Amino acid sequence: MSVTIKDVAREAGVSVATVSRVLNGSSNVSEASAKLVNETIQRLGYSPNFLGRNLRKRETNVILVLMPTSEHSLYMKIVAGMQNFSQKLGYDIISASTNATTDNETRQLNMLFNRTVDGAVFLGTSFDAETLNRLSANYNIALCCEGVTGADVLTVTVDDEQAGYDSAKAMIAKGHKRIAFIGANSTALSAIRRENGFRRALDEAGIPLPDEYIYKSTYDQENGAIAMERFMSLSERPTAVCAVSDILAMTAIRRALELGFKVGSDISVMGFDNISLCELMTPSVSTIEQPCAAMGELVIKKLIENITSSEKDTRCYTVPHKLILRESTGD
Amino acid sequence: MSVTIKDVAREAGVSVATVSRVLNGSSNVSEASAKLVNETIQRLGYSPNFLGRNLRKRETNVILVLMPTSEHSLYMKIVAGMQNFSQKLGYDIISASTNATTDNETRQLNMLFNRTVDGAVFLGTSFDAETLNRLSANYNIALCCEGVTGADVLTVTVDDEQAGYDSAKAMIAKGHKRIAFIGANSTALSAIRRENGFRRALDEAGIPLPDEYIYKSTYDQENGAIAMERFMSLSERPTAVCAVSDILAMTAIRRALELGFKVGSDISVMGFDNISLCELMTPSVSTIEQPCAAMGELVIKKLIENITSSEKDTRCYTVPHKLILRESTGD
DNA sequence: GTGAAAGCGCTAACAC
DNA sequence: GTGTTAGCGCTTTCAC
Q1: Do B114 and A50 touch (CB under 8 A)?
Q2: Comparing C-alpha atoms, which of A4, A135, A115, A138 is closest to residue B60?
Q3: In whole numbers, what is the pLDDT of chain A averaged over residues?
Q4: Domain A160-290 in CATH 3.40.50.2300
Q5: Number of cross-chain residue pairs from A and B with Cβ atoms under 8 Å apart
Q6: Distance A15 CA to C15 C1' (A)
Q7: Architecture of domain A5-48
Q8: Where in chain A is the domain with CATH 3.40.50.2300?
Q9: pLDDT tens sequence across B250-291
Q10: pTM listed for this prediction
Q11: Neighbours of A26 (CB within 10 A)
């Protein structure tokens, strides 16, 4: 049914080795046979079976990307960046969503164990440092976007502490003196670091931070609304809010509007990520941009280096973020 | 380096055949050796190499999903539905974005040609009917969400004509007499059908449809704003607008707000798809829901049937849509 | 119930 | 330049 290298060899009157050579661009083949073979390939509609090839070469040139959810445009942008870049290096990217469950994550990782892919990058993971270290010792893996404390694994993120600092600093620069924070009390390292940066900025500016100005829960979108409601019911309301994600900022904004406040004047709101919706919303959302394409490219570059080299780079790389001011902070 | 079935066999003191048998749950193996083999597998941390297995079995149990863009939550929801479902049938889903270019699409399809996957489903495609028919003759493919005229290929969509009809009908039921339409003059069959349904509803109700009430361009988000601007500058402004996508509806809404109109009273707007943002936006967006999970499940079910059977089902299946009214139409 | 051996489609020595 | 051949890791007859 399916045409194989053998068929091509027979039809072209050469050996399978010769066909393989033209397939792989080997120089040791005469122009004449190359032409003949290529014509035969065309004529038979032959396409090499990569199961055979990959089995023999013990590599697949495919990298798996695992993410907690595929319904977050941030991840999609990162994956797109990876795809564009890896293509040039002859690698394919395939991706899967784990729904943030360890079960799914473990199951998806089988592709790594069963040698269907050469490496994996986690856009957030539910594995602990120990598990990751064990994985990293035996396979080529990397973390992107979200690091894990104590994990001695190749990692690419923004400088979350500095980004949190910059976010707060932007509000301070606008003259705000009462600034609240919507965080996440998950174990997410990025959220913790952003909060640390936020606190440092207020600290440096001598701005007090009452406990009621900090709302920490999960990344679930409704928490933005809950936080805002809580803030705006305080006797001394904040005039600005920094959130650890755009989605949280957006639902916070929506609730503020519903409560009758003018966003951008009564209350300013900063997001984080710069997902495409930031521009679409009314008001548009100020935020810290994560450079998705750059992060994706760097992590893929480093991971492929690990795959193709004998030594393993397990360092943590940082890419530059960017402050973007829009209507939600009165710009 | 990597532990193979041979290692397990040697360590357990049995033949590779026996190991293979316990791996595949064959009944013809004594309880004793099964136990022994399983222990050895555990001890050595063995994981079967699927390249070898798939090569031998000539199947991968993997299905490829190709989509124009991964930054559309509609597609992500469909893929999620597919994933949850296919898992039960022992299949994995991998997905890739084509950025709507034939080049990318062709390149991605190599996974089908090189036998890395058993089948492919297109969430929209740039291939013409002839190409698809040729593909379908030699491989297991399916279309989901977006059909192609003349393509004799397994297809699953909503009844777009009826959905367009229902969208307009909902506006008519609310008493609107001047209803405009934001469409797409792309070759997208769904957009054409939705427009046909829209026209039928107005026709049946005896409502005139001046040319200026139809704005057709591409699915690019800015076109919603352009359309709305055009509509609202007419001497006789429409009081309702139906769009072929939520994104177009949302940018239309945003522009209407910017122009000082009250959305839901001055102008009602209907979207299409029911992406999660519909609820998040202010005002929330009325729409026609596409049943993502149901579409994903059905197409995967049918495709797997094709893969595992000798005859090929190339019919077109339809799944039920749902009208959802929210604030943007004054509800 | 178990093992020996063939072979899935391919690449890469090795010989010529 | 080219062909022969071994073997990647696995499943599956076929004997026993």
Answers
A1: yes
A2: A115
A3: 95
A4: yes
A5: 97
A6: 15
A7: Orthogonal Bundle (1.10)
A8: 62-157+292-319, 160-290
A9: 999 999 999 999 999 999 999 999 998 899 888 999 999 999
A10: 0.90
A11: 12
